[in-house]
Amino acid sequence: MNAAPIPFAFNGVIIRRDDSGRVSMTDLWKAAKSPRKKKPAEWLARESTQELLEVARNLITPQMGQLELIASQAGRYGGTYAQQTLALSYAKWLSPELHLAVNQVFFERQAEQKNPDKILDRAEAAYRRRGFTEAQIRARFLGKATRGRLVSVLARHGVQKHGYRLCTNATYKPLWGGEAADIRVRKNLPEKANPREHMSEKELVGLHLAELLAAEGIERVQARGNQQCADECKRAAQSVARMITSHEEGSRPRSSGSPQ
Predict the structure, then answer these.
(1) Residue 208 and residue 142 in contact, taking contact as beta carbons nearer than 8 Å
(2) CB of 195 within 8 A of CB of 184?
């Protein structure tokens, strides 16, 4: 099954989509400030909605195969999900502003599917609004790709649950002298902040190289499980830390009496 599509937000509410691309009607209702008598169930009970569903079953269902147009998920993070076109109809019934906002997002996502470079453009613009320099943005993109590869390698080599945090901290400690929590304190960041979002270009590039070497090392020695993979992450980070230290020491100004 494909990964769930990236969510978006309106009025501070995250509008989720499930693995099949259906949109959370529950989240749309909350984003419209939970209007009375406009819950998903009430929209679905309308005669006009039933007529719309009948047409959709003939026009849309063949494209979706065995997937349901409307689906419900139980639990704390559940809700009612609807195929994209139906979700747009529900958003229009809820609020004109919400309808236009959701419609715009869907058009943008469709354009990004045709031209993936637009995804990078949107991410770059978001980083720039947050004050990232051009160098930080380039390093962040490079690091995200490497991090994705490492996470995939860790999963294939039996890392589970807290093992990912163990491997991350095993990488951070040789490079920056502490775990993620220590870095947050040192940089005066909120408790849940991602340290990678607040690293310099040099820190990001160093982290990229360490994680690249770790992924290669884990596969080369066939490390298995949380601790063995964390050990490989630590070893890779130590190598990069030594390289950085050696470079910094070699770049120190020479005294006037030093040999040329």
Answers:
(1) yes
(2) yes
Q: What dihedral do alpha carbons 230, 234, 237, 238 form, nearest 10°?
A: -170
pLDDT for 147-157, tens place per residue?
888 988 999 99
Given a contact cutoff of 8 angstroms between Cβ atoms, the answer to whether 157 and 223 are in contact is: yes
CA nearest to 34, candidates 94, 92, 78, 103 = 94
Q: What would the two tokens of residue 170 be?
A: 């095993």
Average pLDDT, the chain: 82
What DSSP designation does 46 have?
Answer: S
The domain locations on the chain are 8-114, 133-250
Task: Give every CB contact of residue 81 below 8 A, 6+ residues apart in sequence.
Answer: 17, 18, 22, 23, 24, 25, 70, 71, 72, 73
pTM for the full predicted model: 0.51
Element (H, E) at 249: helix 225-250
Question: CA-CA distance, 109 to 146, in Å (whole number)?
Answer: 24
**Cβ atoms 196, 206 nearer than 8 A:** no
